[in-house]
Amino acid sequence: MSNQNGSGSDRKFKVVGTRPIRHDGLDKVTGRANYGADLALPGMLQGAILRSPHAHARIKKLDVSKALAMPGVKAIVTSADFPEIGSGGMAAGESHIDPKDLQANIMARGKVLYHGHAVAAVAASTIEQAREACKMITVDYEVLKPVMTLAQALAKDAPILHEGRKAVGVPPLPEGDTNIMMRLANAKGDVDAAFKGADVVVEGWYEASMAHQGYIEPHATVVTTRENGQAEIWCSTQGPFAVKSMVAVTLQMDPNLIRVTPSEIGGGFGGKTTIYLEPVAVLLSRKARRPVKMVMSREEVFRATGPTSGTRIWAKLGVKKDGSFVAADTRMEFEAGGFAGSPMGAASMTLYAAYNIPNFRFEGLDIVVNRPKVAAYRAPGAPNAAYALETAIDELAQKLAIDPIDLRLKNAVKEGDVASYGPKYDRIGFIECLQAAKNHPQYKAPLGKNQGRGVGAGFWFNVGLQSSATVSINDDGSAVVRTGNPDIGGSRASMAITVAEELGIPVERVRPLVGDTDTVGYCDLTGGSRVTYATGMAVIEASKNVIEHLRARAATIWGCEVDAVEWRDGQAVGTNGASNNKPLSLADIAKQMAHTGGPIIASASVNPPAAGPGFGVHLCDIEVDPETGRSTVLRYLVVQDAGKAVHPSYVEGQFQGGAAQGIGWALWEEYLFDKDGKMENPGFLDYRMPVASDLPMIDTVVVEVPNPLHPYGVRGVGETPIVPPLATVGNAVSRAIGVRMHQLPMTPPRVLDAIETKKG
Amino acid sequence: MESVRYEAPNNVEAAVRLLAGENGAKVLSGGTDLIVQMRLMNRVPTVFVDVKRIPRLSALALDAKGLRSGAAVPAATLYGNETIRKLWPGLAEATDLIGSSQIQGRATWAGNLCNASPAADSVPALIACGATVVIAGPKGERRVPVEQVNVGPGKTSLAPGEFIVEFEIPAPAAHSSDAYQRLIPRSEMDIAVVGAAVALTLDAGGVVKAARVVLGAVAPTAILVPDAAAALVGSKCEDAALERAGQAATAAAKPIDDRRGTVAYRKKIAAVLTRRVAKIAYDRARAR
User: Fold this and answer.
1) Which of A208, A206, A719 is nearest to A458 (CA)?
2) Confidence of residue B44 (pLDDT cuts 50, 70, 90)
3) Residue A5 has pLDDT above 90, yes or no
4) Cβ-defined contact of A668 to B188 (cutoff 8 Å)
5) Which CATH architecture has domain A403-462+611-760?
6) CA separation (Å) from A343 to A6, A385, B281?
7) What is the CATH number of domain B176-286?
8) Does A152 touch chain B (CB under 8 A)?
9) Smallest CA–CA separation between A662 and chain B, in Å?
């Protein structure tokens, strides 16, 4: 682990950049932390969901009467209990959600669109009673042919998932019924002419499997409702305010009646930015007049919650002999799952964002298939897009016999360049990352037989959005900071570090809390790599407001003007006529709060319209067993611009975690469906996420090119690390075996096939 | 809701009575398969017969004749035993591959065998070493070679009321050793796509006198491959002999396509692993 400074911000930090033990650490390692399934209320019922055994079917009849008569059963809900709502978008963090689709994904209406789609739910005294009752619900299905792949969805005679629904987006759009829900396209320059002028052109199809976020904690909620219509929701979520608005829209409720308390969260990675159980539990609780708990099994998580899209991407890239890119063309097909809304839009924006390409074109299609509806997953869409482009770049580097990092350096975007998606870049650190990777010892380490080294890069926008924070001072001089962002990546530690930095007190004297929707100001959800950046800015502002109070209190104590009091190193220091006073520490002032104006508390809110983008460069050294096709990752390096690392250990943790997920996606993780569209591997045994022994220690270099939009220079770091690995690992395997791989995951049989095809 | 009973007899006869008494009785030792199957696959027994309190089932004895190991001795104890690791290194490495470290604290050879998965890691290694099981039942005790216990996926030749009491493994002859490897995409926490165990006995000059080659996950049960063994006998495990043994393994493999591998891939890997494992066993035997 090392740390490379860019030119750096001038500010000398005392706490920012240190590595204190996280405030929530003790509870987590001792098992005291309360996750979604840990809450129990008096009289609480247990809920279970009946799920579709078919991937594609019409619900002709649904009869719950026998189930209702089962012992212990207190309530049953089906789609008939949900209000009918119209279409229309609602913002949800990084993605747009159609409320009608959201509701129909939570409880199938008329049609089931994937194996595991919810069709009814039961609340009973025990979970066994609820499950037994589910078995007694009779559903009459008209089974339809499932559409499992992009090719099947686009076939001329393809069964249609959403009859009567038209494609939207950029023309030409398909006419009549289609499984294409959206088409996007854009172009710059004269692409065809530019390709004619290129010295070398590569093109190919690149396929990646649907992949699950794999959070260890399954979705879970407890709901209680009151006679006045109020609903109290406890759940594992990345965004309590988002849950509140999504429950309100799916149940057509007054949001004012809903309070959402986020539990401790055992991973989300974007997958907990939407809802599945909460509205169902509200309806069950209303009917039963009792609290209801619902907890998914791992199998339910796989069958019915959002993975990210599998994709087929065709990419073509042309260069001059000197390595300068002249043209690029891409067609992207994204699996949306059962309902529209893949991250194809974000993919199309990130696709060319890291390079200066004078002429480019892309087309992107959002395509529905009878698989679970996709949800956000860490830099949604960007890894798929980068897989295609960064692989094409590697092929070009080989054809031109140019070092792959040099080829990227030649074309990399820098400050002042106009991004392919529109804006002009402010200070960014892509060049610095490429250089740091090139200078790293791993890049010079000798490779043995059957070994290959892959290089890949990645870009993610990061977002700002709305955040609030409140800082209050206790009478012992300690502080509490409250925000509304569930801590999925160590953000409580960063919030506490920020308060400690501003107030000048030890970080252990700050308690960072995550509040519920009634106790803290509005915060957009934890996503978009935004919390340490945007919520952190609100915390800085709130801390500064507290300092204003502290100066005023000191002035009161000293009987001087506020202007004569400075806040320096954690104490009030008198100047200009007040300098004879002995400085007052925060504790001194806090002790006298009651006599100087009462409690000291301040809030702040921010709404930054933009964030500083993050760039990363990865290196992967791999050995492939030529007789079995099995890959072993020997060395892996993540270099990324963090702007300013507030808590470097959690920045490094984000780098390593994203790389681990990306390596799993590249080598092992895969959705397997049988011929009827039933997922064959809905568990961690056969959905192979990497375990610790599968990976080397992932090395990191934290590059710090300060983000001009943030007072400390912070950039979001959570998502960029998953963007480069698919191509990085692919390039390593391709170089190790001397054959270009075009499909992920690169399972042993696929790699062995490629090796044997080369041998002929 | 069904209820499950739990019994923990302290002698073999009592266990047999409980097991013979009802169809839904199941032997519980480590429970690492049984409990998972109950929870995930809804296979709920009427009674768990916990055999860990029967002294014979937890005993471990090593002498000049070989090893006698109670059926409830956990994997971690077995591969943690230095003598076992020295005498049967392949069996020890196979035992060390079952599940994970946590699971190995509970999992047993008997459980791995009676779960009757064609992909069980310890089973090919046990067969290669010539292991025998002592089975107790309503008609008394009988001894059966391990390769005769499994008859198909999830099926054993044990009669109602019977259960495994002990494993007996003969002490290896001079210049003998064994090895086991499996192919999995990951490095642990996975199920063998193919497994191969080889046990060899050499003469003083390093020529293979006797061989046993066993494959896992390529047929309804682990299979002995006599043709592969024959290819090794009389050789010094040179490349040509290994190649022939590998071809025999491919020919003997009768795998299926499933989510963990294809027929074609498994047949190829059967050869690769047979060659590699035979070479490791040979080098180990030479060193002894």
Assistant:
1) A719
2) confident
3) no
4) no
5) 2-Layer Sandwich (3.30)
6) 32, 10, 52
7) 3.30.390.50
8) no
9) 15
